[in-house]
Amino acid sequence: MENREYELKIMLSKDEYEYFYKKSTKDIVQTNYYFETSDFNMRKSKQTLRIREKNNNYEITLKSLMTSNSHDGIIDMKENSINLNKEDFIDIINNKTSINHFMSGLSEPLKLIGKLKTKRSMISTNDLLPSMELDENNYLGKIDYELEWEINESLYPIAIDYLKNEGIKLEEHITKQSKFIRFCDRLLYIDES
Q1: Which domains does the chain have, with CATH numbers?
Q2: Three-state SS annotation for the chain
Q3: Would you state the pLDDT for residue 110?
């Protein structure tokens, strides 16, 4: 299944996360298992390959960064996803089966480089805007916090006004780094230490 994701990403401090968490509902825990080549060619080519485990469901997703856009903090990705059964998931994670067999177009062998666990909560804002996703991410001994907001371009100014009204100083928080990029940066930092 092919999909387009146009997402505003805002990094939060722990205090800001806790402020928004009080407004949230529906906690969901999901784990992303990331795959990469030995020389990080996926990252270099602005692609992400992951298996997401959520509620005993498994999905492989290949994300590719699309064109840069005019709005700060927006990540525009093309996604191709397929569902996976539990047995295949276990075989991939245990290196009994290559993930390359499940996604077409992958030319280099990929290996599991680690996982990122997210506690995701939903926040309703107003009738004009879709719900925001509030994430607490735990990976490689690090915890970070972010808001992800799938919006279209026409809603961007309304979303920015909402965040400003909530006291978020956008110049300090907007990021164009996906979870995968932050995961890789942390992994490379640990390897260098």
Answers
A1: 2-192 (2.40.320.10)
A2: CEEEEEEEEEEECHHHHHHHHCCCEEEEEEEEEEEECCCCHHHHCCEEEEEEEECCEEEEEEEEECCCCCCCCEEEEEEEEEEECHHHHHHHHCCCCCHHHCCCCCCCCCEEEEEEEEEEEEECCCCCCCCEEEEEEEECCEEEEEEEEECCHHHHHHHHHHHHHCCCCHHHHECCCCHHHHHHHHHHHHHHC
A3: 94
